[in-house]
Write a structure and sequence with these properties.
This protein has ten helices and 14 strands. The chain has 421 residues and is of the alpha+beta class.
Length: 421
Amino acid sequence: SETTRAELRNKPPNILLTNYVMAELMLVRPEDQRFMDIAGGGLRYLVFDELHTYRGRQGADVAMLIRRIKEKCAAPDIIHIGTSATMVADRQVGPDKRRAMVADFASKLFGHAFNADQVIEESLVTFTEGGLPSREELHAALGNPLSTTTDEFKRHPLARWAEIEFGVEPEEGGRLKRRVPRTLAAAAKLLSDTSGVEAKVCELRLRELISLAGTLNRQTRGRAFAFKLHQFIGQGRALYATLEPVDRREFSMEGQVRASGGRLYAPVKFCRQCGQDYYHVLRGDSRFIPHPVESSEDDQEPSGLSDAAPLVNDWSDDQIPLNGETGNGKLRKTWRDRVPVAVLVSPDGSYGSQQRDGTIKMWWQAVPFSLCLNCGEFHTAQEREFGKLASISSEARSSATTILATSLQEMPERRAGVTNC
């Protein structure tokens, strides 16, 4: 609040936490000049966290900001500190060269000379005791139960092998550095080659080891092994559904557009506000066809068709926003083509105004998508379609929503729908 800011200005703190955007504002706002008081001793420590993020154009901007701050209020012997957990140079170079590269980066950013001796790296020590086990030790350990106490686990041959082959490796000078991550299958093959035990057995024992290590406590804090397991899941495909009532429609993520009996699959999109699902289709003279999901959002004319909407969510002209009508109750020109139109759609994609066997009532909306029939959220024509409707997997990586939605397909009663998490 402004009251708190005034209190800070009246009595500047010894330590001020901020970001580079606010730091630049402090340089130009007259009321913040108390923070730049060089007469009171000046800025004695300048600390930047997450140093690795200041690269490229942003890094150049921040480097210039640092020089302006120091020109304004730096003490004669200001100390520059930069911290980063991932400031890693080329992994193939030795520690001296690595520290020299980091020092060179820090010198450019801070405008202050650093040398390799001023770069402090982490010092790693092993949790297990006894070093790398022999082939005989590993062969015997793979046939025996794992230790269930922390002290015994630290000396177990398989635990010793796993820490060295998964976690750390020696480098010149006798220090340890973090090992490049490897897959479980690759580690199991290496263990098999080393011990002479079948690879499938090795993988099972490694899985058992990792699970056990996550339950054993260290004397200080944390678990015996802090393994990070990464499972990479390819980008999910679009979700398709047949043009049928909610309780009967079928789903697919295989990309086909034809179902049995002449029915059509159409890609499904979801309102980003409430998760209401809409069919993404192109409208012909008498038939809807599935929109090609690989094309750009704005290449052709996509639309939203709500599924067989319950009466509580059915469309009415009362839902037209206030700015959609003129003073005499007529629709403005910009809204004439944006109001949902009722159509009766058959499973094969044909539509019309007459009720036929198998038809369901849907609401057509031409691009740009304007109004969610469920939550009432309305959009301007200038908004991108991507910001209004989402597919199950909209990004170049799988999200938690993707995994959740895919899992829901395995449930007995399947219902397409995704809500924001």
